[in-house]
Amino acid sequence: MAGLCEGGNEPSGSLKAICKWTLLFQLPPCEVRSVIKFLNVQGIAPIEIDRQLCQVYGPNVMSKQMGRSDVGPRLAGIYAKVGLPAAGQSGAHFYRYVDDTLVVWPHGEEKLQEFQEYLNNIHPNIQFTKEVEKDGCFPFLDILISRKSDGTLGHRVYRKPTHTDLYLNGHSHHHPAQKRTVLSTLLHRARGISDKESLPSEICHLRKTFLQNNFGNREIGLALRRAFSDKPPAEEQEETKGMAYIPFYGPISGKISRMLRKHGIKTIHKPPTKIQNLLRPVKDDLGLRTPGVYRIPCECGKCYIGQTGRTIMERCKEHQRSIRLYYPDKSAVAQHSLETGHKIDFSATTILDKTSGYWDLVIKEAIEIQLDGNNFNRDGVYS
């Protein structure tokens, strides 16, 4: 990407189209063999095939434990480089980031469509989709690439149409260092992405955005001087004996931080608890598809109280299976039902507490058993 945008010059050859390809990938167990066959048909030497496979898949390419998620995006490079000569095309430029590839195509849109069909016909599990430039502009990641009147390429920061320019508010109850990071991060991005022509307008836009988010002119000015200063930041040489993580509560936190700094302890300020963390999340109820402590009633009035680190629904199915297969030793519920002939009402199973930690489950189960004396849990067994 840097090679394409640096200096605003286009790659050699006549520039016909800029597009983005996204790789849709699903790796079956025989994928390595399929890639080897494909490269072998192209006449590539075995040693070169081995080198490319090791470069993409890693040194343990023949291991059965090779992961799937790490392989797909990097196959784009091999398929594009090998596919170009095979399709009779050359001169295209590829700039890949994960599963997105920026392509500078000099052969026209018809040839581009043919080349995409060629790549998608190589293997049914490796498919590419494409987006083509529109009105001389093309967004790739957070960069907007545009054609200039002289034929060169310009680049500036890209924002989606739905972008709201809302960031951490300058009046919010956060440590000043965290607020300064918002300004420095956006200014650093503007300096790194924008070309000379678009940088002034980007800085003007950021100034307006910072003011809308209640940052002061002094804070903005200091952030601009830091961002565009060629002087490297001074490094702290203080010896740190330890670190302390404390919530931020205005001036009090600053005083505590200065006291700890005298003793060589670095302070990390955490934001305080938000109202959002205190409210119950607005999501669909998972029902019994959650770990925790549960209660299963019987028609006789007694109940069973248990706990599981898996889902309660899965554990109830195991109790039902033990009853059906006559396994009283594997389940206290099955033992009670088989010995008394009572019907267990699994449909009335309730959740007493949602938790997943081992000791939390054991302790809370024991407490619930003691609180509810009318149960048929086994003595001394809490599972």
TrEMBL record:
All residue ranges annotated as the Helix-turn-helix domain in the record: 166-218
InterPro entries: GIY-YIG_endonuc_sf, HTH_animal
One Pfam family here: HTH_animal
Top-level division of the source organism's lineage: Eukaryota
Protein's UniProt name: Helix-turn-helix domain-containing protein
Species this protein is from: Periplaneta americana (American cockroach)
